[in-house]
UniProtKB/TrEMBL annotation:
This is Uncharacterized protein. InterPro entries: P-loop_NTPase, Rab_GTPases_membrane_traffic, Small_GTP-bd, Small_GTPase. One of its GO terms (molecular function) is GTPase activity. It comes from Euplotes crassus. Belongs to the small GTPase superfamily. Rab family.
Length: 186
């Protein structure tokens, strides 16, 4: 449960393509999951139940509300890593970052160092939370929990293994990040 009396907070979701960013967001905001990879560069803004066009085609933006009516979060995710690297728009005004890798893809874990660098370059004091997604794929797991935890500890960030498919820890991870953002803004 997220409590505060405040304003809009911007959260971005980043990590390699295919790690499950879009599904993590749709699982959290709409309790939906898709087996298809999100290759359609349409813009989706989820404003509660409405989807509206947005100016930047490569960015998807979700709007959710907290416990009190005046607490709002904008959750952005993008499938275009090039767009992300070349624009400050994605990072502008951001309060929190959900950084995601895929526990079945070693490369997405190795790229975390690079992602943290990019985040730090743009945002000096945004809160970061690390998610190792696809924890349901036990038999395909190549990044062990201890390595995920050790990386998070080395950066001083919170870590969850999660699954957008079976819902494990998605709500907990998001709510912890949102609450940390709210607390640090108060
Ligand atoms: P994005 O490019 O990071 O936004 O990744 P997507 O959300 O489009 O997901 C990429 C693929 O991984 C899709 O085929 C999803 O169905 C799948 N996927 C996403 N999350 C999970 C998960 O938690 N478990 C499993 N098994 N598959 C997932």
């Amino acid at each position: 449960m997220i409590r505060s009396k405040s304003k809009v907070s911007k959260i971005i979701v980043i990590g390699d393509k295919g790690v499950g960013k879009s599904n993590i967001v749709t699982r959290f905001t709409q309790n939906e999951f898709s087996l298809e990879s999100s290759s359609n560069p349409m813009i989706n803004i989820y404003t509660d139940v409405k989807i509206k066009p947005f100016r930047f085609p490569e960015i998807r933006r979700s709007v959710i509300r907290g416990e009190e009516d005046d607490l709002k979060f904008h959750i952005w995710d993008t499938e275009s890593q090039d767009a992300l690297r070349s624009t400050d728009l994605y990072f502008k005004g951001c309060h929190g970052v959900l950084l995601v890798y895929d526990v079945t893809k070693q490369e997405s874990f190795e790229n975390l160092e690079k992602w943290v660098e990019i985040i730090r370059e743009h945002l000096s004091d945004a809160k970061i939370l690390l998610v190792g997604n696809k924890s349901d794929l036990h038999h395909l797991k190549t990044v062990c929990t201890e390595d995920g935890q050790a990386f998070a500890d080395s950066k001083g960030i919170t870590f969850y293994e999660a699954s957008a498919l079976d819902c494990t820890n998605i709500k907990d991870a998001f709510e912890e990040l949102l609450q940390t953002v709210v607390d640090s803004n108060n």
